[in-house]
Amino acid sequence: MTDSGGARGAPPCLALDIGATKVEAAIVLADGSLTRRDRFNVADHATNLLESIVTLARRVCGKDRFDVVGVGCAGPMTRGGESVSPLNILFWREFPLRQSLCDALGGDVYVDGDARALALAEGAFGAAREVTSYLSMVVSTGVGGGIVLNGRLLDGESGNAGHIGHLTVVANGALCSCGAYGCLEAEASGWAIEGRTGRPASEADQATRLRTGELVGRAVGMLSSVLDFRHSYVAGSVALGYGDDFFAAANKAARVTAMMSYSHDIEILPSQLGADGPLLGAALVGWRGAA
User: Fold this and answer.
1) What is the pLDDT of residues 195-235, one digit of tens each?
2) Which residue, among 79, 166, 154, has the nearest Cα to 123 in the 3D structure?
3) For the domain that residue 157 is a member of, what is the CATH number?
4) What is the pLDDT of residues 248-288, one digit of tens each?
5) Strands (E), 101-255
6) For 223, how many CA atoms within 13 A lie in the half-sphere containing its CB?
7) Edge-to-edge strand ranges of the sheet holding 134-139
8) Domain count within the chain
9) Would 75 be classed as within a structural domain?
10) Long-range contacts made by residues 160-164, C-beta under 8 angstroms, separation at least 24?
11) For residue 6, what pLDDT is reported?
């Protein structure tokens, strides 16, 4: 299968989505159906996060054994998730995630970035099923992305390709958790919006919602001209919560930024994956690794 294709004939996969806010687990079948789903909030398990993840995984598995375990985790990380240092999980720095899960769960464990995993899911089960080159991104607590070109997920030198949240969109802007200033994540993420306005991102006024869309569009437009794709699919509570106004502002800004003839008709559209997207992506990480 291509990275953006489906998963016909794949075995059931134990899928784990590890983010800054929640950890979720499910058994995912090749047709994209999910069973035995469960989750917990990271804030409630900060002192024993790995143990809680293992307990969650065992609860979801029950008495069954699954030979393929797919994991989407916040990054950055070394290739294959051998060492993860999520910017928004401060107590994990160079944490040996893949080996730790192998030791606890057995089977073959495959790890990739959570937003990169979502890009796989968008191609296999979402809005990009007929598209071979696209950007998939999340605008939520943080901002992340994955890039599929010619049917293949772009990995990069260390396996971290796609971190669109760390494109500079505001000169001398807010300090980002990565250490740079003016990153998209530092200006348009949920935590950035709350920090700037003093209110949760969900309560942002119209001007903030339009600004967020404009900044996302600016980043997508720049990237589309560099990498030659014409479709971007956006998930996440901020983007989807802001709705039509966000997407209108994003598309307008992207088309002003992407002025090359091959990128000027860039489209920024809502993801079609819904709440299942992160777990579908994690399963696809597992199937991709085991192929």
Assistant:
1) 999 999 999 999 999 999 999 999 999 999 999 999 999 99
2) 154
3) 3.30.420.40
4) 999 999 999 999 999 999 999 999 999 999 999 999 999 99
5) 108-113, 134-139, 143-149, 152-153, 231-235
6) 30
7) 152-153, 143-149, 134-139, 231-235, 267-270
8) 2
9) yes
10) 160/75, 160/76, 160/77, 160/113, 161/116, 162/113, 162/115, 162/116, 162/119, 162/135, 163/75, 163/76, 163/115, 164/135, 164/137, 164/219, 164/220, 164/223
11) 56
> Which tokens belong to 48?
């024993």
Q: What percent of the chain has pLDDT over 70?
A: 98
- Residues 103, 149 share a domain: no
pLDDT for 125 beyond 70: yes
Does pLDDT of 1 surpass 50?
no
The answer, yes or no, to whether residue 8 has pLDDT greater than 80, is no
7 lies in a domain?
A: no
Residue pair 137/143 in contact by the 8 Å Cβ criterion: yes
- Give the whole-angstrom CA distance, residue 284 versus residue 120: 7
Q: Does residue 265 sit in the same domain as residue 131?
A: yes
Establish how many alpha carbons lie within 13 A of residue 171's alpha carbon, considering only the half-sphere containing its beta carbon: 0
Residues 63 and 161 placed together within one structural domain of the fold: no
Tokens linked to 36: 């035995």
**Rounded to whole angstroms, how far apart are CA atoms 268 and 251?**
6
Q: Do 139 and 181 lie in a common domain?
A: yes
Per residue in 159-186, pLDDT (tens digit) is 999 999 999 999 999 999 999 999 999 9
Cβ contacts of 2 within 8 Å, gap of 6 or more: 123, 151, 152
Domain extent at residue 226:
127-272
Q: In the prediction, which pLDDT does 106 show?
A: 85
pTM above 0.70, yes or no: yes
- Say if residue 132 is in the same domain as residue 267: yes
Residues 139 and 184 both lie in one domain: yes
Same structural domain, 132 and 247: yes
Q: Are residues 211 and 268 in the same domain?
A: yes
